[in-house]
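## retry 2 of 3
previous attempt timed out at serialization; input unchanged, resubmitting
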Amino acid sequence: MPLSDTVEMLQAILGAIDEGIHVVDADGITIFYNHVAAKLDGLTSDEVLGKPLLEVFPSLDRESSTLLRVIESGESIYNQTQVYKNWKGMRVETINTTLPVRVGKRLVGAVEVAKDIGKLKALSERLVDLQAKISKPKRTKRTVDEVSFHFEDILTSSEKMKHLKERARRAARTTSPVLIYGETGTGKELFVQSIHHASARSTMPFIAQNCAALPASLLESLLFGTTKGSFTGADDRPGLFELADGGTLFLDELNSMPLDLQAKLLRVLQDGQIRRIGGSKSTRVDVRVIAAVNEAPQMLVQRGLMRTDLYYRINVVSFELPPLRERKEDIDLLVRHFLEKFNGQFGMNVCGTSKEVARLFASYDWPGNVRELEHVVEAAMNMVEADTIELEHLPPHVLDRNMTGESEDQPMTDLSALLEASDGRTLPDIMRELEERMINSAMKATDGNVLRAAKLLGIPRQTLQYKLSQRMIPPC
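## retry succeeded, writing output
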């Protein structure tokens, strides 16, 4: 392929990427600038191509420009926040990964991949401001009850869960770090808020942050705060550690936090001091840190997603919340609770579930745990017309999953006896005949009522109607 064609193909590929791509040569002159970068910067390609970088972006200099710093040092920069103004005075905020471009050993330029984080950062700063406003009056008088869950809200008849509740009550008396492990939907934050509310810190701030919700650079500034001038456009802002001073900071999905940021968290746990980004002064904070993960912590350490030293430091008190499939004795209790909750919200009077629904709930494996059970009950109450939830009111995925898995644990019959009784028929033939006989029997037993027959067979009404139409089974 001719060199000119190769260059055109490369330009087409870079132009099609849905992220800002900006390439400069060794002198800082722009040689490639795709349409996404132009949109981020509020400029056109013609206003940037062939021009010195600092001419187009006069608010930058060789220290604050990530592209020029890479040309100067020859070293890559990853996920670096950059705030600047273009020559029109428009303020731009991006998070950049900038790499040196070499031909052989000679550095010939730098390429930058940029993402717009201006709106996301503005939202995170607004969150910090709101947290600051909320937390101030709580130091003297609890005017805003952010913590909505107490130990009394943890409904259970499971002995294992009762034991965990008792251990958590004891842990609430201290200030040690806590690590909670549980699958998604098992109620980790409910436990965390209950611990805070039962502690001596209950009138102080409770702040929760999901570590997977923000890019690493934003998460760091959100946690530790920023000092004016730490990077172009930065303001003096407290972080969540300062706002949670005297109270509790809950870090959910801790394993999503980058390892270098985990190291900074470890230092806070060890010496109780934080330093704002770009600052030289350390500030002492009194914060109880409670973290949660949705995978086994030991596995996270083995896979390199959690620092070993952080694991041992934060795992002073630990809880492993069992999934709902391991405490099915709680299902009836939880269903009654959710029925009462949604009856109040929807102005309804649903009394309970049918026996078929209760049996399905008991056999279902609940991959989404308590949260899924709540959503299933809510979905069913959107469909119910009488005072009882029936199989037909349940979401299809619950019915389908239960049907595919309901026979997995049945004991196997002697295979040779089955083969002798088959009279040469194949398994599909036998299954088809058995299905037709069962459907016919159900239809006769219910006088042709499709809904009742479907309940008797334990399948959705739509499924039975489809089978009747496809196989031309007589209704009685």
